[in-house]
């Protein structure tokens, strides 16, 4: 039985400008004073740049407290140019010639609030904007542990609809926000599009963080050493189809994973207590840098030669059964089909003399 759909071939990553670079994870203590948060973030970013970091990763919701009740009042109009948080990131990125994965801030647009990450290039321009993914509340965080914590992010925020992969001066990066890390399919999608690093600005709480945080980070790095077959799958960005015959098409490479959380505030009055523990994870799941729960900037090195070394030491791509299963990138598949339809229509018009 032939597969019902075929994915476009995986994208090859662009040649990186550098094989090694330092990453700084700025785990910030966040207060209710936005101006204070912006000033603290600027100071941390500049110090990291002075220490040699070429890529800075910021936390999820770093410009204000992570509270569903107050989040809308802190929301900024990024597209309208009324975003002091993003303006600061752009100024520092341009001045220090660094790339910044800007964590996330509450964004207001079209009467809605989004949890949005902007990636800023070395010229200070926004290279990409990722809205925490959601469709029928998918990937927007919801938790209800009786006697512990209850939070429904969908009560306040609207989910984005697009995965985000962006080319930067340090290479191709995939972006996810917090709850996105729970979905291995999204990481597999990013790997198929040529990313070597996925950044997850996050704000896990103590309840889930203690149980899952370390595991999730390492899993997203390690499970992308090779295409795996998942019995349950999400269809908003990709599908897995069992097939009976075809040549193997995919070569799967390893990923680095960077996460960045706000620092834990022991004096907070909120029931949502931040876990912290921002980390840089290597392609074997090794911890290259990690913070504890307090405010800190930790730095680690991404060495792209480690990816090749891991492939040689553990050649899983040679063992992947491309004749039995394959990844289908639904979004790229639709784009390819749409482009093909336009090309056919244009050819038919030329043949008919129109």
UniProtKB/TrEMBL annotation:
Residues in coiled coil: none
The keyword Nucleotide-binding is assigned to this record: no
Species of provenance: Urochloa decumbens
Pfam families named among the record's database cross-references: CN_hydrolase
PROSITE patterns: CN_HYDROLASE (PS50263)
Keyword set, alphabetical order: Hydrolase
Single GO MF descriptor: hydrolase activity, acting on carbon-nitrogen (but not peptide) bonds
Keyword check for Hydrolase: yes
Disordered, as annotated region: 333-354
UniProt name for this protein: CN hydrolase domain-containing protein
Composition bias, Basic and acidic residues: 345-354
PANTHER family membership: NITRILASE-RELATED, OS06G0206000 PROTEIN
Ranges for domain CN hydrolase: 21-304
């Amino acid at each position: 039985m032939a597969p019902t759909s075929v994915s476009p071939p995986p994208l090859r990553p662009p040649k990186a400008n550098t094989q090694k670079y330092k990453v700084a994870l700025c785990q910030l203590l966040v207060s209710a004073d936005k101006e204070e948060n912006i000033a603290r973030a600027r100071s941390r970013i500049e110090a990291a740049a002075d220490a040699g970091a070429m890529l800075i990763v910021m936390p999820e919701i770093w410009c204000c407290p992570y509270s569903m009740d107050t989040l809308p009042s802190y929301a900024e109009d990024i597209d309208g140019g009324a975003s002091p948080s993003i303006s600061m990131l752009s100024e520092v990125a341009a001045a220090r010639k660094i790339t910044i994965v800007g964590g996330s801030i509450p964004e207001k647009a079209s009467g809605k609030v989004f949890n949005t990450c902007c990636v800023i290039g070395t010229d200070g321009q926004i290279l990409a904007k990722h809205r925490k993914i959601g469709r029928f509340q998918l990937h927007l965080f919801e938790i209800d542990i009786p006697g512990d914590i209850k939070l429904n992010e969908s009560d306040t925020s609207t989910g984005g609809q697009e995965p985000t992969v962006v080319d930067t001066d340090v290479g191709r990066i995939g972006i996810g926000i917090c709850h996105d890390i729970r979905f291995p399919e999204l990481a597999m999608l990013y790997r198929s599009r040529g990313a070597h690093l996925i950044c997850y600005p996050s704000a896990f709480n103590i309840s889930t963080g203690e149980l899952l945080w370390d595991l999730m980070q390492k899993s997203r790095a390690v499970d992308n050493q090779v295409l795996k077959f998942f019995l349950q799958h999400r269809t908003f960005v990709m599908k897995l189809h069992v097939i009976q015959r075809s040549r193997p098409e995919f070569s799967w490479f390893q990923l680095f994973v960077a996460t960045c959380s706000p620092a834990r505030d022991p004096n907070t009055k909120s029931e949502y207590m931040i876990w912290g523990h921002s980390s840089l994870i290597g392609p074997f799941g090794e911890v290259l840098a990690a913070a504890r729960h307090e405010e800190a900037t930790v730095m680690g090195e991404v060495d792209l030669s480690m990816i090749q070394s891991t492939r040689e030491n553990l050649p899983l791509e040679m063992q992947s059964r491309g004749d039995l299963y394959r990844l289908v990138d639904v979004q790229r598949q639709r784009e390819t089909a749409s482009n093909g339809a336009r090309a056919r229509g244009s050819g038919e018009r030329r043949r008919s003399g129109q």
